[in-house]
Each structure stands twice: as C-alpha cells, then as structure tokens.
Write a structure and sequence with these properties.
The protein has about 300 residues and is mainly alpha-helical. It is built from eleven helices and no strands. The protein has two domains: about 140 residues, no CATH class; about 140 residues, no CATH class. α1 crosses α3 and α2 runs antiparallel to α3.
Length: about 300
C-alpha cells in the first residue's frame, strides 16, 4: 500500500502530469525537463530524505529509556519496512513519469550538450524509465537494529557480535540427562549461589538488581588516547556498558550470575581479555590498554 501511494504521488497520478520530476518548473520553464533535475536530482533528493528520516528514527530510539511502552519498539521495527516500501515507490513513480514523457506525451530534454531529433529524446526518456524501473530490484534494505530492552545486560545482538568476532559453527550437542549429583556436589555451591542463599529478603535482591540497572543507564566516557585501539562498534559497547562493567570490576556491584562472578575473579589479569563472554573480554582489553597507557598512580579506572 505504501509503495503504491508513494508511486502515485511521485509520478503525478495516472496521467503522469506533475509529481516530483515536474518540480523543476518551480525554477522556471527553461529548467523544465532538464536531463539533470527531471530524474536524477528528483530521485536522489527523495531517497536522501527517506534515509535521513529513518536515521532520525534510529537516533531517537537509541535515546529512549529501557523501560518504555512496547509501541515504541513496534514503531521502530515498522519504520524500516515503511522506508523500504516508500523508496520502491519513489523509483516506480519516477519510472512511470519518465515513461509517460517518452511514449505518451513526447517532448525534448533541455540542456543536452548536443542536438538530436525528437525520436532520440523519446528513446532517452524511455531508457531512463527502464533504468529507474530496474533500480527497484536493487534498492537497499534498511534492516533495523534489534529493539527493546535486554533481559540479560550481557546479551549482545548477533549482528554486533558478528562484527566483533567471527562465530564458528556450533558443534552438534547430544541431548541427554545429566547423572544425579551426589551429596558432596550439592553441598558445593558457587559464591553467587551462597550469596543468594544467605540474602535475607527479596528487598535486598531487588536493591542489588536496581543498582545494576542504574549503572547500566550511566554513560561511560572513553579515554581519548585509547579510542584508536577499538572499532566504532566496540566503542559503542563500551560507552553503553562501561560504567556497569567498571562497577563489577571495582567491586562496587555484587555479581548476580555465575558468569559475572567468574568475570570478577579474573578481572585485572591478562586472562580477562580472553574471557568467553565477548563483552567481558572487551572490558579486559580496555582495562589492559588503560593500564599500559596510564601514568603511575592512576591505574584504577
């Protein structure tokens, strides 16, 4: 529906009179049907506007709080689909308008550096119409980033993770029930399990979770001299999760999961950069880079 509506508006309707290509009449009758403004500039300007609007939607969505109404995520998801449909409609509309100019209402292009008969102008209009029509199949896809707040703050979307490190194909896993644990194994608990067992009230647990959330909402400022050592995607992850990671590493936050507890146990060592969780490993690299470049007495992040 969006493609059809945009195509009708851009083309000027079924008669192909008006629409985006005929906006060059605003400059003057002498500029009408210029080889540059009648198709190239009209299509490029409209597609640029659509891209800019989608980028604005993405920027606004990134600034929304984690706790928000689901309708904002739904609008964000549909924004890319509507932009793709409108972009196809622009090409279809321009193609239809040029086809009318070349076959139904033939006229000459203005501003060509050479002269040719009207048949040549018709052929040029028709060729441009077919080229624009063929471009519909090659329109880029505006796939949105994964919207919505994450249940696990260490869960990174697969697109970002793929840019950080190649993902090897997973080996087949045999699904079988583990053997029952012995009494000794049951008695051995991780520090996180013991901490949660010893926590007296649910209010204390809620307070710990709230502290984690507050740290995740605080932006992290990267040290300027360390930025060249990290890609733009890695810098974005550090700005988003750096305050939370620093809180875990410095002991300001209590680990809530076994993985976080393992991270705290190796943070500050060289092995932290090789941690299985790529977000924790990224912080290990940043911590190592900071220690190598920081003056004596200021090693703490």
């Amino acid at each position: 529906m969006t493609t059809v509506l945009v195509a009708l508006i851009v083309s000027g309707g079924p008669d192909g009179d008006g629409g985006a290509p005929d906006l060059d009449l605003m400059v003057g009758i002498g500029a009408h049907r210029s080889w540059l403004s009648h198709s190239i500039l009209a299509g490029a300007a409209l597609e640029g506007m659509l891209r800019a609007m989608l980028e604005l939607v993405r920027m606004v969505h990134d600034k929304l709080p984690e706790e928000r109404e689901p309708v904002w995520d739904l609008l964000y998801q549909r924004a890319a689909e509507l932009t793709e449909a409108a972009n196809r409609g622009v090409s279809l509309g321009v193609s239809y308008h040029l086809g009318v100019d070349g076959l139904v209402e033939p006229a000459a292009y203005h501003g060509l550096p050479f002269e040719m008969p009207l048949v040549g102008h018709q052929a040029l209009f028709t060729a441009n119409s077919l080229a624009e029509l063929n471009d519909v199949r090659n329109k880029p896809q505006f796939a949105p980033k994964r919207p919505g707040a994450k249940d696990d703050p260490t869960d990174i979307d697969t697109t970002t993770m793929a840019r950080l490190v190649p993902i090897a194909p997973a080996a087949p896993v045999a699904l079988e029930c583990p053997p029952p644990r012995t009494r000794a194994e049951v008695a051995v608990q991780t520090p996180v399990q013991r901490r949660w067992r010893d926590t007296a009230t649910t209010e204390a647990l809620a307070s710990m979770k709230l502290s984690h959330k507050e740290h995740r909402l605080r932006p992290f400022t990267l040290v300027d001299r360390l930025r060249p050592q990290f890609t733009s995607d890695e810098q974005a992850l550090l700005r988003r999760y750096g305050t939370w990671l620093r809180g875990l590493a410095n002991g300001d936050l209590e680990p809530l999961t076994a993985e976080q507890d393992s991270f705290v146990s190796v943070v500050g060592r060289r092995s932290a950069a090789d941690f299985p969780n790529k977000l924790f490993a990224l912080w290990g690299r940043y911590q190592r880079a900071h220690a190598q470049n920081a003056p004596l007495g200021s090693r703490r992040l």
